[in-house]
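Subject: mismatched residue count in predicted assembly?

I count 454 residues in my input, but I want to confirm that the predicted structure covers every chain. Input:
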Amino acid sequence: MKKAWWKVLTVVILAYVIFQGLLGTVPRQPILNETIRNLYFHVTMWFAMITVLLVSMVFAIRYLRSNSAIDDDKSAAFAKVGVMFGILGCVTGSLWANFTWGDPWPNDPKLNSAAVGMLIYFAYLLLRSSFEDEQRRARISAVYNIFAFFVFMPLIFVLPRLTDSLHPGNGGNPGFSSIDLDGQMRMVFYPAVIGWTLLGTWIASIRYRLKVIQRTQEERVAELPVGQRSTVNG
Amino acid sequence: MQELKTLIWKEIALEWRQRYAVSGMLLYVGSTIFVCYLSFKVNQNDLTPIVWNTLFWIIMLFTAVNAIAKSFAQERLGRLLYYYSIASPRAIIVSKIIYNSLLMLVLAGIGFGFYVFVMGNPVDDLGLYIISIILGSLGFASVLTMVAGIASKAENSATLMAVLSFPIILPMLLMVMKLAKNALDGLDRSVSLDEIGILLAIDAIVIALSYMLFPYLWRS
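Triage response: the counts match. Full output below for your records.
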């Protein structure tokens, strides 16, 4: 229970974010109106995704150094959570775009880059599933994970800034910090980033612990004499 | 250095001995371009410079994927083990990248010549366009060599090659196409410096990553 404090924190933060995000006072802006609340969900989910993918990449590097299967499990679990946040970010963004820009998928460089980024990580998942041997899968997907991360970063941070984008902070549009003069939104925004990241860590930790349990089970079954295996498996 | 030279020479000699591979690739480029030419011929005079440029780069992309996919797949297991015992993995990846860059330069050069021959030449600033072809070939070769190395370890490597490489190569493809478009419109060269810088930066990142990561890939 002592180790669970951060899970309690996650629940508290996210409850606060959802409550404040849906009911709290927000600045009135033309066009944006109430959709400005999506800032607490859409933007923060992208932040969480980048953090989670970074963690996944770090575990991939650690795997290449240590060769321990646990690092690979962690790397894969975090990458999957990253993909989940990516999809959620796309969906929330698409909702928001539908109300403010009048199109669920406007032809915007940042959107397209994000979609390509998702494709990169889908390819990662496909690559993982196409190996039988665990060691081989771990090593090759770790290599691809690192490679993908470093290509992904210029894709979403550098390229959209070169062209005009509808997103705030790109192509001469002001960022959100200029709207939020009294720092009221920041009080929710930063906790939201932390909250989603913690939630992602939580999901990833459950996933890789399940994986570890599964592996020990398999090893236990493998050690049994042949006759008893079916009863344990069934 | 000597090791590198020997390895590159080995690739060239190998290619020369099995000439059908290179001639196959050349024929691939040629017939793709001809198919495009005939397809667009149907509604003539509709080929705007943007379409011209995009079509050329798409053809180059597919040529590159096909040409480089075989760079690891064609080697037999026994031979790979032999290389493993005599050469360092870093020398191998660098030699493969250099060799594939040369191959891509040849294919892109001949492809461009043929493309201009049948599709006409709307390029204003030919020098800059050639720079964009050179940068594009180098970039495609360096990204795809690493991806080919990854894909060759898996079972269904042909599909995997396309799936893994397309999204990764996209930033580079977009930049090259933008640079080529600038050359096509004959914009002042100072406008294109940004794109050239970014292309070189992406190339540098990719080559550095390949250099660092390939030893891990090689070992398995």
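Residues 57 and 146 of chain A are 6 Å apart (CA to CA). Marking this ticket as 'not a bug'.
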